[in-house]
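Hi P.,

Sorry for the delay on this. The queue was packed all week, but I finally got your sequence through. Input first:
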Amino acid sequence: MKPLTMKTKAFMVPTRQLTKRLSDYESGNLNVDQVLDLYSVLIQNGMAWTLESKYGRMARHLIDSGSLTSDGTITHEHLPF
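Then the structure:
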């Protein structure tokens, strides 16, 4: 599975690909790197704050724990799981 994060803007991730990744996340089928990648994109495109509140809470947790920066950059300083 290719990472979602692109060097350009996150909003360029195809909707179908993002929807599939959200479905995989909900099903528990993503590894830690894939979860960080997903949340990186959700933070970058603002969807982390507009989807169900559980996504915003998880995004905030990943930022507060140092796994992601507030702009969605993956740091890998602290793994969330």
